[in-house]
Amino acid sequence: MSIYKQVLGEDYARIHPMLQKRYDFAGERSFEATGIMKEIKGGPKWLYPLFRLGVNWKLLFPERGNNIPFSIKNTARLGPNGESQIHWERVFHFGTKKRYFNALMSLDEKRLVIKDYLGEPPLVYSDLAFEVSAEGAITIHSLNQRLVLGKIELPLPKLLQGLATVTERYDETDAIYRINVNVRNPLVGHLFSYEGEFVQNV
Fold first, then answer.
1. Any idea where the DUF4166 domain is (predicted)?
2. Is the dihedral of CA 42, 43, 47, 53 positive or negative?
3. CA pair distance 4, 12, nearest whole angstrom
4. Greatest CA span in the chain, whole angstroms?
5. Whether residue 28 has pLDDT greater than 80
6. What is the 3-state secondary structure (H, E, C) of 19-88?
7. 100-127 per-position pLDDT tens digit
8. What SS3 state is found at 4?
9. Are the beta carbons of 196 and 37 closer than 8 angstroms?
10. Which of 1, 87, 146, 169 is least buried, going by the fewest C-beta atoms within 10 A?
């Protein structure tokens, strides 16, 4: 059973049928799609060095813009301990440059939260909570975060965390997936966001 089905339980049936199909990662199933990010925005300019450094971990990037070609690939696989994992590869195409925002997710069965390791190699860990709207959209909230330094994970104070809210829905009129991602910090405010749409590759 998909880790997303497990964490949402009965609420999974309330998701739009196309989102149910998208998040049903059973076995070694994958999902691939392409689209356009209508807008990618960043925070204060003084954070540019941090975003530039994030390129090395396929986590952050300094480029911003409108109508940026985008591709996503979600791949189900088994981890070293046999747990189900979903690899997220998100690629933003700025001309000849490819920028990534990658992650590896799995399920904490005891706490019923999704474990999210961001970057390659992982640099940040976050608990994820999922909820379903009345319209059948999925909203994902990042919770407690840790800095990952190899095998060492250090809790991040709330004031240093980049807390994400992700909303994904299916637009029946245009037959397209729409996504909005917003990352904020309690002190700085807006850090990073993108909004766009994509269709599954045939």
1. 16-198
2. negative
3. 8
4. 47
5. no
6. HHHHCCCCCCCEEEEEEEEEEEEECCHHHHHHHHHHHHHCCCCCCCEEEEEEEEEEEEEECCCCCEEEEE
7. 999 999 999 899 999 999 999 999 999 9
8. helix
9. yes
10. 1
Cα–Cα distance measured from residue 90 to residue 79, given in angstroms and rounded to the nearest whole number? 20
What number does CATH give the domain 3-200? 2.40.128
Q: How far apart are CA 84 and CA 190, in angstroms?
A: 33
Nearest-Å Rg of the Cα atoms of the chain is 16
Contact 112, 143 (CB under 8 A): no
Measured CA to CA in angstroms, residue 94 lies from 44, 48, 180 at distances of 20, 17, 19
Question: What is the rounded end-to-end Cα distance, in angstroms, of the chain?
Answer: 24
Confidence at residue 174, expressed as pLDDT on a 0 to 100 scale: 97
Whether residue 115 contacts residue 108, with contact meaning beta carbons closer than 8 Å, is answered with yes
pLDDT band for position 1 (cuts 50, 70, 90): confident
Which helix (H) or strand (E) segment holds residue 138: the answer is strand 138-149
